[in-house]
Amino acid sequence: MAEVARIGVIGCGSHAVQNLYPCFRLAVHNPPELIGAAIGDLAEGGAIGELAACCDVDGERARACARDFGIPAVYTDHREMLARERLDGVIVALHPRLQPQVAIDCLEAGLDVFVEKPPAENVEDCLALQAAAAAAGRFAMVGFMKRFSEPYRRALAIAQRPEFGPLTAYEARFTFGVYPPRSVYDFLNGFTCHHLDLARFLVGDVEWVMAARASRMPGDVREWTPGTIDVPVTGSAWRDGWALAEGREPPQEEAWACLLGFAGGAIGTLQLNCLERLNERVVLTGHRSVVFVDGWRTVTAWLDGAETPEVWEPLDQLPLDALDPRHLHGFAGEVRHFVECVRDRRTPDVTIDDGLAAIRLEQAIKRSVADQRPVEL
């Protein structure tokens, strides 16, 4: 077991810079103010990993990232980075159209890989990534950070108590304001994959789905072929891709309503839309018990026979790293988990198998809408 895992990162876009690179200081380098904090699994002292290199086809962006986060080596070609650097693992944070082949290159170089969600745009690319991981004897972890977020982990722990009773019903509402044109990111693939995975994490495998869709997009076209407007490989796919498509394709403004049947017998509903402000709510119902998670923050549980609820929310008045939103929302937890698994040579809790399951569910939802019938997975 290596004492410190050497990690490279491919991608210096806005998400990586805002949410992934900072997690090395917050959770991997283990700063003194974090030790002994309420985040129990971060109590061990000392760094468990280091940022050894970063890469982006935009050289200026890569150099700025290296400067801001103290990264010693900078590349604009990921293959050169893989050939020259002594790495133990790689984080790949690119557009899902670009991630699969880059992640496969890393696996074939003998490295464990973290790929940002969604790992790909389609089932075929996910299967190729899954096969590459198996052939290399390495793992491909997927960045479903909500699995590591404190509110959802607490809700799951409550739902697993004997007094909660069997989990019977699930409800999730996940919303976003006007979303970029579909050729930049597909709303279900690029955004709601979070809650397609979260439903599986909290309840279990989905056996069937029935879905409906309503759109307020001008000139809405249901059928879409990826790549009709190329997403630039430099800069931020979100920002620059939107600018590229502006005037050529409308942004997404739509709602999806999904009824789910879970393998364990529970049923669930998902309301997913890009028509209003960013918000989310999750409800887990047991037997005469229920737990709510509001705003990805506050957990409220009413257990059978209780006269008052159990309520939890982060005490984030103090300026501690342990209370950074990246801890609360799971970014720090997922990055640390990846580095620990690389260092200890163990399989992570969330892998490309889960990424494939989320994309299969996404495709089943779209098929249900197209065929106006339930679809089995």
Summarize the structure.
The protein has 13 helices and 15 strands. It is an alpha/beta fold.
Number of helices: 13
Quick one: how many beta strands?
A: 15
* CATH superfamily annotation of the largest domain: NAD(P)-binding Rossmann-like Domain
**Protein structure class:** alpha/beta
Poorly predicted segments? 34-43
Rg, nearest Å:
21 Å
CATH topology of the largest domain: Rossmann fold
| Lateral strand order in the biggest sheet | 14-13-12-11-7-10-9-8-15
| Intertermini distance | 39 Å
CATH class of the largest domain: Alpha Beta
What is the N-to-C order of secondary-structure elements (H for helix, E for strand)? EHHEHEHEHEHEHEHHEHEEEEEEHHHE
Please give the CATH architecture of the largest domain. Answer: 3-Layer(aba) Sandwich
Helix content: 25-40%
Main beta-sheet strand count, sense and barrel state: 9 strands, mixed
- Beta-strand portion reads 15-25%
The whole-number mean of residue pLDDT values reads 90
Shape designation = globular
Could you say how many structural domains there are in total? 2
